[in-house]
Specification:
This protein is α+β, with helices and mostly antiparallel strands and 360 residues long. It is built from 8 helices and 20 strands. Bound molecules: adenosine-5'-triphosphate and magnesium ion (MG).
Length: 360
């Protein structure tokens, strides 16, 4: 049982500040994902929670007690890394038991814990094998087993699936989520893969360059991205961004090349008269009658995915590029023109300068 609280946490390496004041309250049993591009500070933040990096400024507390100066071993935390290095000369059983043995736990208790964890992970029949006799996914499960047997208060994961192939990653993702729900252990999971983050997290911390730019549930962040950066990072294919202008009353969007359209009443932004970036997700375009259309897209290329079709094309005088995701299989041809509308509620407005979302 553990809740974790980060209060205005900073980290500098020498004179370089890499984490610029992050705060977040993580509830007991919650699954939090730290998401962001390479180098944004995800691992550093996780390592501070683990006690592997000194906190430059701010506080990290577990169950209300500040742990800034506690050694990793005193924090009751287990961590799974990308490179989980099992001991090659030991069996799976011994690999899982090792950490308990050096803590001098009685043999019977070790055996019970290893067998219980193996049952949860469905690796009981592998306990006598050596790591080299296992598949990548099985090895990853043993690495998790090593953590489970310790019965920690908190699980930390740093990109644990990135060494696995795509199919196995999806399978293990599901298993980690199920396991976490069953054990109900507070978990913090680092990834740069937005689909992993969306599917695993109760909430996500989206990081950009050492800042937590948005904290929320996957759906909150997908529907209301706080900045253009977040909007572009969450969702696949990525959101389309168009240079645009809002009319002074905010009721009309003007795109380049003389294209403009009205925004429905309830969805008008609370600012107007400035240059903006208009964001539209590929899945939010709808085929429409020509005279009602907001834009006419000339198809450059299509990809049939089975359930959906991705359409790449351009519109307007300056050939602005768009990506569309249309449900169902469409056998469109190159150079066909599609007439498109987007519901006003699915338009996202971002300030051109700051990149911040313009609320409605
Ligand atoms: N020991 C260190 N000394 C100096 N700078 C460091 C150290 N560790 C990390 N950094 C820097 O801190 C920043 C954040 O690094 P971090 O490893 O936390 O990024 P990350 O988000 O985990 O990236 P990745 O997705 O590539 O693992 C980077 O600019 C990195 O170069
Ligand atoms: Mg990292």
């Amino acid at each position: 049982m553990a809740d974790v609280s980060l209060k205005n946490v900073y980290k500098s390496f020498g004179k370089t500040e890499v984490i610029h004041g992050i705060s977040c309250d993580i509830k007991d049993g919650e699954f939090i994902v730290i998401l962001g591009p390479s180098g944004c500070g995800k691992s550093t933040l996780l390592r501070m929670v683990a006690g592997l990096e000194v906190i430059t400024k701010g506080d990290i507390s577990i169950n209300g007690a500040v742990v800034n100066n506690l050694e990793p071993a005193e924090r009751d935390i287990a961590m799974v890394f990308q490179n989980y290095a099992l001991y090659p000369h030991m069996t799976v059983f011994k690999n899982m038991a090792y950490g308990l043995k050096i803590r001098k736990m009685p043999k019977a208790e070790i055996k019970k814990r290893v067998f219980d964890a193996a049952k949860i992970l469905e690796i009981t029949e592998l306990l006598d094998r050596k790591p080299r006799q296992l598949s990548g996914g099985q090895r990853q499960r043993v690495a998790m087993g090593r953590c489970i047997v310790r019965e920690p208060k908190i699980f930390l994961f740093d990109e644990p699936l990135s060494n696995l192939d795509a199919k196995l990653r999806v399978q293990m993702r599901l298993e980690i989520r199920k396991l976490q729900e069953n054990l109900n252990i507070t978990s913090i999971y680092v990834t740069h893969d937005q689909i992993e983050a969306m599917t695993l997290g109760d909430r996500m911390i989206v990081m950009d360059n050492g800042y937590a730019v948005q904290i929320g549930t996957p759906l909150e962040i997908y529907e209301n991205p706080a900045t253009r950066f977040v909007a572009g990072f969450i969702g696949s294919p990525a959101m389309n961004f168009l240079a645009a202008r809002l009319s002074a009353d905010g009721k009309q969007v003007e795109l380049r090349g003389g294209i403009s359209f009205f925004i429905q009443n309830g969805d008008v932004p609370n600012q107007g008269g400035q240059e903006i970036i208009l964001g539209i997700r590929p899945e939010h375009f709808i085929l429409a009658e020509s005279k009602k259309a907001m834009m006419h897209l000339t198809i450059d290329h299509i990809e049939i995915l089975g359930a959906d079709t991705l359409v790449y094309g351009h519109f307007g005088e300056d050939k602005t590029l768009l990506t569309l995701r249309l449900p169902a299989v469409h056998h469109f041809k190159r150079n066909t023109v599609l007439d498109l509308i987007v519901s006003s509620k699915n338009l996202h407005f971002f300030d051109k300068e700051s990149g911040k979302r313009i609320e409605r």
